[in-house]
């Protein structure tokens, strides 16, 4: 299993679980009607979550888990700084 494969499977499983939880609400697919919200959601997934997860698994592959954990916890901080800088 490559880090990219693990990352993709993990994100797909999380997406399926979130959709199943959302279906229980009143308007489960409301995000699909608002184009701006959908673009933000997809951008966050592909530019925020996937790179953090990929870096984590790649670091575990080449290095060790403690360094990978530090990188993973720094990811949201970097994303927040980016968002605040370009808001």
Largest sheet report:
none
In total, the number of domains comes to 1
| Global mean pLDDT | 83
Beginning-to-end CA distance, first to last residue: 38 Å
Principal-axis shape: globular
**Main structural class:** mainly alpha
* Residue runs with pLDDT of under 50 for 5 or more positions: none
Number of helical stretches of at least 4 residues: 3
**What is the number of beta strands?**
0
Helical content class: over 70%
Question: How much β-strand is present in the residues?
Answer: under 5%
Written as H for each helix and E for each strand, in order along the chain, the element string is HHH
- The radius of gyration over CA amounts to 15 Å
Task: Explain this structure.
- This protein is mainly alpha-helical and 87 residues long.
- The chain contains three helices and no strands.
- 80% of the residues lie in helices and 0% in strands.
- Helix 1 packs antiparallel against helix 2 (35-62).
- The radius of gyration is 15 Å and the shape is globular.
- The mean pLDDT is 83.
- Residues 2-81 form the EamA domain.
- It comes from Lapidilactobacillus dextrinicus DSM 20335.
- Keywords: Membrane, Transmembrane, Transmembrane helix.
Offer a few descriptive terms.
80% helix, EmrE-like, EamA_dom, mainly alpha, globular, transmembrane
């Amino acid at each position: 299993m490559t880090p990219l494969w693990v990352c993709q499977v993990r994100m797909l499983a999380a997406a399926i679980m979130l959709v199943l939880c959302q279906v229980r609400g009143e308007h489960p697919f409301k995000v699909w009607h608002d184009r701006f919200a959908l673009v933000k959601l997809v951008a966050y997934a592909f530019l925020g979550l996937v790179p953090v997860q990929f870096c984590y698994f790649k670091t575990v592959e080449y290095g060790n888990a403690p360094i990978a954990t530090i990188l993973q916890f720094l990811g949201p901080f970097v994303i927040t700084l980016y968002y605040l800088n370009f808001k």
